[in-house]
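Input record, target 12 of the design panel.
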């Protein structure tokens, strides 16, 4: 795997872990527990959509760097437009599910552009540093690009921006009649849970990147679960 593939795969693992932790946390909250069958299906499909969009950003940054170019705001707008093709495939896939969704782009686009911008800049820094080095130095390059606190903040920002988009989308879910009056409360509670989960996961992942493998003892997330399957372990 090259550095672009490694970074995209690592990002996928983080987002999938984020989704799983969010679902686990939702089970403890009423009325979210009542809406969980719909929310769980929605979150699983939505995370797959986001993984695909992030992979587009990372690949595009890699292509530009290989051509001696730098991603800019126009790159972000182009990626936003291409991402809507992934949205259309997502909506077609869930059309027969009990989770009818209307994507309100006037609310979501500004959030997406901010997230694309953050992802673009991070990918540029990391991939520029790994040029010609193969995939094994990505963790080392993250450490050279970011102090631990700044990297944790980057992860937290990316996940919370994703949570804001998810909150907006969740307002469109078809819910049981009993829960319809609670729609806004459910959306707000979902965001609150996702924000809390993001804080814990950002700290865990930063710990994985900035501590030697032998010292990692973080419950619920191990280096082997995120780093090794995608080539981010130390060589």
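The sequence produced for target 12 reads:
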């Amino acid at each position: 795997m090259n550095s672009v593939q490694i970074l995209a795969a690592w990002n996928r693992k983080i987002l999938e872990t984020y989704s799983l932790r969010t679902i686990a946390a939702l089970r403890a909250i009423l009325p979210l527990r009542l809406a969980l069958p719909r929310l769980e299906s929605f979150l699983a499909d939505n995370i797959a959509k986001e993984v695909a969009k992030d992979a587009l950003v990372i690949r595009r940054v890699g292509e530009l760097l290989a051509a001696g170019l730098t991603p800019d705001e126009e790159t972000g707008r182009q990626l936003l437009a291409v991402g809507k093709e992934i949205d259309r495939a997502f909506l077609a896939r869930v059309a027969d599910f009990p989770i009818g969704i209307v994507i309100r782009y006037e609310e979501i686009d500004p959030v997406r552009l901010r997230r694309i911008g953050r992802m673009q800049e991070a990918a540029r820094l990391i991939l520029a540093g790994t040029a010609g080095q193969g995939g094994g130095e990505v963790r080392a390059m993250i450490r050279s690009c970011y102090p631990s606190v700044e990297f944790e903040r980057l992860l937290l920002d990316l996940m919370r921006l994703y949570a804001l988009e998810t909150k907006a989308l969740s307002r469109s879910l078809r819910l049981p009649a009993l829960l319809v009056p609670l729609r806004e409360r459910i959306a707000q509670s979902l965001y609150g849970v996702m924000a809390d989960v993001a804080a814990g996961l950002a700290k865990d992942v930063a710990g994985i990147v900035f501590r030697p493998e032998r010292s990692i003892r973080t419950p619920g997330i191990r280096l082997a679960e995120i780093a090794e399957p995608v080539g981010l372990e130390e060589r």
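The chain has eight helices and no strands.
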